[in-house]
Structure formats: C-alpha cells, structure tokens
C-alpha cells in the first residue's frame, strides 16, 4: 500500500548546546550529501539543548538545499500567532525551505517550569486544532483576521509575510483523536519509532485515512513521515533499524510499499561517525530503487 508520494530521507539532528560546531557540521554534511530534510526536536525546558527556532534560523543561513523543520514544536510554549510569523519569515529568508511540525505538548512538568500552561489530554488536542486554524489564517495574507477559540484568539490581526512556498503542517500524532485530526486538517504525519513501533503503524494509518474521508480529502494529501531511531551495524539483528545495510533496505522498503510511509527521518548514534554518509550513499538509493515504479 502506497499513497503515491515521493520517497524522501532526512536526519534527526540533536540540538546539542555543548558542541555547536558539531551540530553545524552535521547539518552541512546533510546538505552536501543530498538529504531532503533535517528535523530538530523542540524541548525548550531542556537545558542542554539549543533553542530550536534559533538553531533553525542559524542552519538556514549555513545550508543551501536541505529543508528544515521543527520535529515537532512544543505548542504550549510557542503561541501559534507568533509561531506562524516566525515560520513564514524563515521560509521567506531561506527560499522556501521550512516546514512546520506541531505537537500538542508533552513533559508537562518542564512546560510548567517555564511558565507554560498545564493541559489535560483533551485540552491539548483542542488547542492544537485551534492552532492549525490560527496559523493558516496568519499565512493567508489577509488583513483584519479574526478568530475566537477556547485557547487562542485573533482580534483584527494583519497577516504576513506569506510563506515562500506552500508550507506543510505536519503533526506529531499518536492517539486516536490526534490521528483523526491529522487526516482532517494536516499536511503530514510525523510519529517516532520510539513511541510508534512499525507494527503499530497500519492501524494508525487507518485512523488518519478515516479522518481524511470525513473531511472529503484524499489520503494521498497527507505525507507520512517516520522518525526512525537506530544504527547501521555489521550483524543482522531482531531489533528494527539496528543491523547491516541490507537489513535497513529491507525494513524501509517494507514500510514504504506495505505500510505507506514516504519519508524517513533517521536518528543515528551520537556522534554518528560516518553513518550519515553511509546511510544516504548505501541505504537511501536502494530504497528509492525498490520503491520506484517499474513500468506503465
């Protein structure tokens, strides 16, 4: 089962504040080597991490081709109106290389420690849905925008700048309501193998497709990204994403052709050594070949 979207590959870059030189080096390796995306987790309460938006802006100026996105934004600490402007501004400045990953929130003690709200699961889901509407309104280019929600309001806001390209909103969704929302409203889904193992993906995909059907959308409108945590090794392993190149190729090919995932954001050992180069040179081309249509 595929949704017809082009296969892509990205790197899950840790925003390590203790070695900014290495962070920049990895991003530039990805840019030169031909990775499609770099995803950066957003945990503002984590003292050993750089601020994600500041890092994205810095990397946009130090790379040329690779697209960048927060993987995913901690929404309770990022007001959506200002977030929309920040994302659109960076997209304009980078020549259309920014996407927006959104999450409802996690690690609530850390959020509370920074003065953010504590929300119940239901509140977090409702706030995320409102945020999607607010962000899209503020990317519309319209003046005098209004929105009255339970959590967020716009009172005659002038939107802009408009993003340089049709920027995607990708949701880090796991639960049934979030998956349904992804199908109804989002441009992409970005779970992590740590929380959504491969065996869980088909049922989750079905919930997204149900949400898309409810909204009259085609399931192919939603990109299916997967944060894959593992390492390239020398010996086969029963553990997913931990083994030689051939095992990686087989596993990712299966996820693309049988499960419908179209983008793989790879989290490799820290530091990755030559694994960044090995993955894009040895694994990615073989997966692309396996997934490519074979004829009319």
TrEMBL record:
It holds the Pfam family Bac_luciferase. It is an enzyme of class 1 (oxidoreductase). InterPro entries: F420-G6PD/mer, Luciferase-like_dom, Luciferase-like_sf. Residues 8-228 form the Luciferase-like domain. GO terms for molecular function: coenzyme F420-dependent N5,N10-methenyltetrahydromethanopterin reductase activity; oxidoreductase activity, acting on paired donors, with incorporation or reduction of molecular oxygen. It comes from the Bacteria. Keywords: Oxidoreductase. Its EC number is 1.5.98.2. This is Coenzyme F420-dependent N(5),N(10)-methylenetetrahydromethanopterin reductase.
């Amino acid at each position: 089962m595929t949704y017809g979207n082009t296969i892509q590959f990205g790197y899950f870059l840790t925003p390590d504040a203790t070695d900014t030189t290495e962070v920049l080096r990895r991003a530039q390796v990805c840019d030169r080597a031909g990775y499609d995306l770099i995803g950066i987790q957003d945990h503002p309460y984590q003292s050993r991490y750089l601020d994600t938006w500041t890092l994205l802006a810095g990397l946009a100026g130090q790379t040329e081709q690779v697209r960048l996105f927060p993987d995913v934004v901690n929404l309770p600490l990022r007001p959506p109106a200002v977030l929309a402007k920040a994302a659109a501004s960076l997209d304009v400045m980078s020549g259309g290389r920014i996407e927006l990953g959104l999450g409802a929130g996690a690690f609530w003690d850390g959020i509370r420690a920074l003065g953010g709200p504590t929300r119940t699961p239901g509140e977090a889901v409702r706030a995320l849905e409102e945020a999607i509407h607010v962000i899209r309104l503020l990317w519309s280019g319209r003046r005098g925008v209004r929105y009255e929600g339970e959590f967020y309001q716009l009172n005659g806001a002038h939107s802009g700048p408009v993003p340089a390209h049709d920027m995607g909103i990708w949701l880090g969704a796991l639960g049934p309501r979030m998956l349904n929302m992804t199908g109804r409203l989002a441009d992409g889904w970005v779970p992590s193998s740590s929380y959504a193992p491969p065996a869980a993906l088909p049922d989750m995909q079905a919930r997204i497709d149900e949400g898309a059907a409810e909204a009259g959308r085609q399931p192919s409108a939603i990109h299916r990204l997967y944060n894959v945590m593992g390492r390239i090794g020398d010996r086969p392993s029963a553990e997913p994403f931990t083994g030689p190149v051939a095992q990686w190729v087989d596993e990712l090919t299966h996820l693309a052709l049988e499960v419908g995932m179209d983008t793989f954001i790879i989290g490799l050992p820290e530091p990755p050594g030559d694994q960044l180069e090995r993955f894009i040179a040895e694994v990615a081309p073989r997966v692309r070949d396996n997934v490519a249509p074979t004829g009319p």
